[in-house]
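Escalated from tier 1: pyridoxal-5'-phosphate holo job.
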Amino acid sequence: MPQTTLLELDRQHLIHPVTNFRAHEKRGATILQSGHGAYLRDADGRELLDAFSGLWCVNTGYGQESIVQAAAEQMRILPYATGYFSYGSEPAIRLAARLVELAPASLRHVYFTLGGSDAVDAAVRYITYYYNAIGQPQRTEYISLQRGYHGSSSVGAGLTALPVFQRHFNLPLPTQHYISSPYPYRNPLGNDPQALIAASVAELRAKVAGLGADRVAAFFCEPIQGSGGVIVPPRGWLKAMADACRELGILFVVDEVITGFGRTGPLFACADEGVEPDMMTMAKGLTAGYAPMGALMMSEALYQAIAEGAGPDIAVGHGQTYSAHPVSAAIGLEVLRLYHEGGLLANGAARAPQFEQGLRDLLAHPLVGDARSRGLLGALELVADKDSKRQFDPALRLHERIAQAAYEQKLVFRAFGDNILGFAPALCYTEAEFELLFGRLRATLDQVLAQPEVARALS
Ligand SMILES: Cc1ncc(COP(=O)(O)O)c(C=O)c1O
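Tier 2 regenerated the structure:
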């Protein structure tokens, strides 16, 4: 079909996620046609270096033939198997068992979803069931982090603390509460990691006390806040929050939808600090975006309490037609093989210092106020004044200028509305591809800086 027709049909019929409808109608879609390794090709034949792994998910890179083979073979053998009525399929069972082997030791049971939002939704539903089952139905309050992202389900978008997911959606719910983001760059306490960790723990304790210690169900967090602007807390923060939750007697739920599957170095960010959560949500890198799948993992204690609460013959009523989809599961098994035996985790870890250094080097650029990363998850924060950390006037639409320039420089990353640039290159990136990334990124920043309105906005 000609591209002009596609663009017109897109405008008329396709609703894009988290997009201003009117702005999209004006701008039109950038249609992607193919991908190979770290590169995407658009409908105009422009080859783009993808420094965002699609949407922080294609951790393996594009065009991994063994994944395509695994999917095709499973489709041929059995394209669908329900998990209802106690049916199952080999790939789903094997993937669940493999995840239990690889995840923190506390997590023993897996419920498969279609992505991250419904994994978070499943977490909330099972937590609710759990507290009813153990005779504590009054534990209805949830705490999460400002700037946190936990998807856009009807309940999860209230754990998400980003305004556009709540405006006009009647969120947050009265049962959803927030504490400050552990944001070192904009921490009023300065850059002392221990002070920041202590402040987060103290705020959690105060919030729980304020709500009533016996009324709080759980604390949800990402090990590194992704969609909130790649906010990297100090090492030790996650463990301190896990320990505080344990002491406070509330559930600790880690959302590893972005940080999982080698994004920060180890398979899960929890492993870095020996954190053993009560629940963990995951998606994205689980299938590297080759097919939709997410998962919720839970502890033995939660599983057993839910099982007992149901009694001998009443079903636990949570399910989806495509839970534990065999094709997605077969893909997941092959993707896990690539991370380990295929050397992708090792390559990601080996290349992380080059990535970190490349971001740090850009601190010298007039637009860049902060550079932060862990593993292959990183960000630059652009500011109008480096000393005061003053942000650019939103009227400048700097993030749109950056996104446009990046596209012209044939580079894909995420330019957030508050002028934080997010990066999540695939774990298959070579040394030369990182050099290319930073060459194009510098050219992008220079191109935008050369615009008189931008230069004038700097102080
Ligand atoms: C931490 C986190 N949780 C949940 C989600 C939602 O996942 P999905 O978009 O697959 O529904 C995301 C998506 O970016 C995420 O980053």
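The chain has a mean pLDDT of 97.
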